[in-house]
Write a structure and sequence with these properties.
The chain contains one helix and seven strands. By secondary structure, the chain is mainly β. It has one domain: Sandwich (HSP40/DNAj peptide-binding domain), CATH 2.60.260.20. The strands form three sheets. It has a three-stranded mixed β-sheet with strand order 1-5-4. The protein has a two-stranded antiparallel ribbon with strand order 2-3. Strand 2 and strand 3 form a beta hairpin. InterPro entries: DnaJ_C (IPR002939), DnaJ_subfamily_B (IPR051339), HSP40/DnaJ_pept-bd (IPR008971). GO terms for molecular function: protein-folding chaperone binding; unfolded protein binding.
Length: 108
């Protein structure tokens, strides 16, 4: 008989909306999270934490930023990873095409 250790659930993914300017220049965003942690007796307790999410200059939509084991804890279960997935907010003037910025102008 083999004995398995604690299992780890699938990562928790959350969308992180960013402006085109934030993706171009890079930024740090603070995100308040609420999660459950297990104490030594196995009871779960609610806690709140503030995570700093560093967005590197030139980041793109779909980039994933992972915080290992920042999901909920349960007895005999390893906390899941918390993953923020960058989403690009629409810009009033520019659209992005790969690494290029595109602007549509009428010619008269």
């Amino acid at each position: 008989m083999s004995q398995q250790g604690p299992r780890k659930p699938h990562p928790i993914e959350k969308t992180l909306p960013c402006t085109l300017e934030e993706l171009y220049k890079g930024t740090a965003k603070k995100m308040k999270i609420s999660r459950e942690i297990a104490d030594a007796s196995g009871k779960t307790l609610p806690v709140e934490e503030i995570l700093t999410i560093d967005i590197k200059p030139g980041s793109k939509k779909g980039t994933k930023i992972t915080f290992p084991e920042k999901g909920n804890e349960q007895p005999n279960v390893i906390a899941s990873d918390l993953v923020f997935v960058i989403d690009e907010k629409p810009h009033p003037v520019f659209t992005r095409d790969g690494n290029d910025l595109v602007v549509t102008q009428g010619v008269t």
